[in-house]
Amino acid sequence: MIFKIICVFTLLLLFGCTHLPDDKALIKSTNIPQTFAHQHILDSMGNTINNAKDFKEAFFILFPIPELQSLINEALDSNTDLLTLESKIKQAASNIKINTANILPSISVGANYNYSDRNFKNVQISYNQNALNSSLSLNWEIDIFGKLNSLRKASNQNYLAAKDSLQSAQVSLIADVANYYFTILEIESSLKNTQENIANLEQIVHITQTKYHLGLSHISELTSLQTNLFNSKNTALNLEYQLEQNKNALSVLLNRQNPSYQFHTPLQAMIIPKVTALPQSALLLRPDVQNSIHNLYSALYTKQAKKLALLPSINLGGSLGQLLFSSNSSAGLIGQITSALSLPLLNRQGITQAYLISKEDVKQAQYNLQNTINIAIQEVNNASINLKTSNQNTINAKKNLDLALLNFQSVQTQYHQKLIDKITLLNAKNTLLNAKNSDLSAIKSQNMAIIALYKALAGQLNSNYAKGEK
Questions:
Q1: 397, 441 in Cβ contact below 8 A?
Q2: How many CB atoms neighbour CB 432 within 10 A?
Q3: All domains of the chain, ordered by start, with CATH?
Q4: pLDDT tens-digit series, residues 244-277
């Protein structure tokens, strides 16, 4: 007996237990930097926002626009990709229950009824005219080495990975809905300005045409203005097409068939957040990174289960039968208990190859985690630079708009004083309209840069967003 116990402990030590790397080990193995390359940009820009309990609330703090928030809530409830991921979470939860049940004994109940006709009496030595039997059987593979428990733990990690996939998709969906929303606002406003620009150009062309017929203007001046008019009309057509494209794309995210939208909030620049979270904690809390970590843990548990499959397995079986009724005999009770120790021999090659495959699965999970970390770092660095440049572009566009407005007001005053002609006034108005479009584009780009930073940090925009609050 002592020898058997020693053998069991020797096998356990030989095959070992699954060791999961903690956060420190993951940070070291994936080379997560202590600071972002452009951390100084994140520290120097924007304002500190209020603490948010989750990624959705963080976004709503950044973008307090009711109609945008309504779109996001609709998308989170009806988007087909999210519904698919929710279904996968339910499947993963069921797999946990299946693998948990495999650790426990299985019990089955059966019933059997036999009937023999007396017409066969001449060819039968003995027969039962009527018999009713019941049985109760039990089968249990004792998980002495932990193979089945490792599979249960692997399925639990798959469940957590499925939940992280859903959250990652939710963050991306929020960002995509917001990007389409701001793009639609910008295009609608730009289209109105462009249509007004076209109306002004048509007046300029008409006046210049009259001057040309009077010999007061050269043909080159007229053709140049006509070319500008045609280009502006083409620009309006492109804007109309882009507007339809973005509305249709937004409808897909919302799972809508009717792409009609009427937004009433004017496009405006949103709050730039001040980010103070450390990169190591911020990156590890990204749901796509957590998904890769849980997939790695699942691969490690599966590898352990495949390794333990090479060891002997112990099975206990039992049965209990009861003859409930018989026309020939009285009821009887029969019981049986069996045990078996099995070791794979002929199929050992297949089990060994399955273990080698699981080792490669672990490597692939590690590579995938490293790639996810690399992409996360790249996204944060790109978002930081994008935020800096877009903010400066917004400042420059606003200054240019102020100058264009000042110039138009001066020209308008001169026109009312009859010091200049109408063409000069219309040109100044078009310059102002073009400046408005540039300002709209800059504002949209800045808002999208904020969205990109939000997405890169998965909504973790302050250092108080701790892992336990996820």
A1: yes
A2: 22
A3: 17-78+146-181+227-309+347-469 (1.20.1600.10)
A4: 999 999 999 999 987 788 898 999 999 888 876 6
